[in-house]
Each structure stands twice: as structure tokens, then as C-alpha cells.
Inverse folding.
């Protein structure tokens, strides 16, 4: 179980979710899936499985043709989703139809190209109307986000979330911390997403360094895939993000009738260390 941490007052649904976890003296669990993998029709059931397994916030990936920040597992998922007809409009439609029943905040994990192609103002309005709680543009740094996207989102009550890494300078950390709403996403690896056998030895020290400079909760992702790793990260972070191992489970069991049940069981295993 993670120790109680001092955090800022909640802002919106994401802040409220972290506050509830803080009151429970634990870290938040944030699973990631690519919307439309293995199909658009299957996605709502998989989202329900994430919640039933213990998700506090969901990161929902928007499939993109050139996912440069993602490893092979999520790249394949993006390709499958695009082949299955997934699009930004389709993803927003899923959120709109199911956000209320899911009952947990939804963060869109996207690249900037689909947002730019749609138009920043149009995207921000549609995201807010659909019930999206936060947006993380993986390839959009704070300096550029502050120019157009973040003001448009903030005007409509949608959080902007930015990435920082072990390689981030103090200036970059401060900029991301000052710009982010909801939480700051710290990448445990400086390369792409993907499962790893071990966490980097300096992770705890680096996360503590970031927390000293950040007013918001800090969630850690990239390379976290086992219950043991979740427990280890939870000792120093406000939130734990798991993506590739869940995406791989979907890939390997896509044809199984009990895919959602398998996913729920796996999320339950991953969240177990947070509840001890």
C-alpha cells in the first residue's frame, strides 16, 4: 500500500479520482487500451472490464498510422484498430455513449496530427461534449500545447496532461508541471512503450526528484507490466500506468469469447498490490 501523500485540491474528475485514492492511502491504477482493438464493437466491453478489475482512470488510445512513441505491441494494436475502422470520431463516440456508465475519468492518449487535422477548437469542443476528461498528446510539448490546444481544452473543462522523463531538464519539468492539469505523466523509460523485465534502478530516486518540483499527482508509465512492478512503482508514485501488457493480452485472446473476463482478471491481479 502506498503512503498517504499531500496533493493539491482536486480539479475535475481526474483530480477527484486521485483524491479518492489518496484518501484510501493508495496509488491510482491507470490502464491503457487502444480503442478499436480488436474491434470497435468489442471496445466498450473491454472498458467495462478495466473498471470491474479496478481502474481508477482509463487511458484510451486513439489509433494513429505512425505511433513513434510506442513499441511493437501498441504499434500492432494501432494497425489492427485502423483496419477495423477506428478513427478519432469513432473513439469520441465510444466515450460519449459509455463515459457515464463507466464512472471513471477517460484520458485520450493521442498524437497531435489527428487533432490538428480536425482543428483544435473543433476537437476541444467535441472532446468536452463527448465526456473526455483529459487529453495527452504524446508528441506535443508544453510550449506548443500552450499556444492553442491547452487554452481550447481548459475553456471547456478538459485537462491537459504532459509527459516528462528522466532525461527532462529542471526547466522542462517545471514547464510541464506548471502547464499540466489532472496529473503529470512520468515515463519510466526514455525510449518507447513496451513491457520490460525490470524497472530502471534509479526510478524511485527520479520520481522523488520530480515530485519535489510538481504540484500535481505524478503517474508513472512505460515498461510496467507485472503486479510486482506495480507495487514497486506505487511506493513512490501517485499513479501507475500499465499499457503494453494489457494490449498484448487483447492481441493474444482476441478470438476468445471470454476476452473481457480475462482482461478483468488481469487488471485485478495488477491492482492487488495497491489494495494491501
Amino acid at each position: 500500500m502506498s503512503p498517504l501523500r499531500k496533493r493539491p485540491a482536486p480539479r475535475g474528475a481526474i483530480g477527484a479520482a486521485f483524491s479518492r485514492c489518496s484518501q484510501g492511502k493508495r496509488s491510482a491504477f491507470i490502464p491503457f487500451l487502444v480503442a478499436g482493438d480488436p474491434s470497435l464493437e468489442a471496445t466498450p466491453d473491454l472498458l467495462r472490464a478495466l473498471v470491474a478489475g479496478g481502474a481508477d482512470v482509463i487511458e484510451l488510445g486513439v489509433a494513429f498510422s505512425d505511433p513513434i512513441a510506442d513499441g511493437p505491441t501498441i504499434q500492432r494494436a494501432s494497425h489492427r484498430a485502423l483496419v477495423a475502422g477506428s478513427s478519432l470520431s469513432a473513439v469520441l463516440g465510444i466515450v460519449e455513449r459509455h463515459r457515464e456508465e463507466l464512472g471513471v475519468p477517460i484520458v485520450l492518449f493521442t498524437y497531435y496530427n489527428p487533432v490538428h487535422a480536425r482543428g483544435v477548437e473543433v476537437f476541444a469542443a467535441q472532446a468536452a461534449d463527448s465526456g473526455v476528461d483529459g487529453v495527452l498528446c504524446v508528441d506535443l510539448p508544453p510550449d506548443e500545447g500552450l499556444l492553442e490546444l491547452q487554452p481550447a481544452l481548459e475553456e471547456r473543462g478538459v485537462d491537459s496532461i504532459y509527459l516528462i522523463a528522466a532525461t527532462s531538464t529542471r526547466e522542462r519539468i517545471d514547464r510541464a508541471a506548471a502547464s499540466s492539469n489532472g496529473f503529470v505523466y512520468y515515463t519510466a523509460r526514455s525510449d518507447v512503450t513496451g513491457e520490460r523485465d525490470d524497472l530502471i534502478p534509479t526510478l524511485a530516486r527520479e520520481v522523488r526528484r520530480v515530485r519535489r518540483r510538481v504540484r500535481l499527482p505524478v503517474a508513472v508509465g512505460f515498461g510496467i507490466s507485472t503486479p510486482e512492478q506495480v507495487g514497486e512503482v506505487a511506493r513512490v508514485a501517485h499513479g501507475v500506468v500499465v499499457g503494453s501488457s494489457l494490449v498484448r493480452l487483447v492481441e493474444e485472446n482476441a478470438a476468445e469469447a471470454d476476452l473481457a473476463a480475462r482482461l478483468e482478471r488481469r487488471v485485478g491481479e495488477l491492482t492487488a498490490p495497491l489494495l494491501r
Q: What stands out?
A: Confidence is low (pLDDT under 50) at residues 1-10.
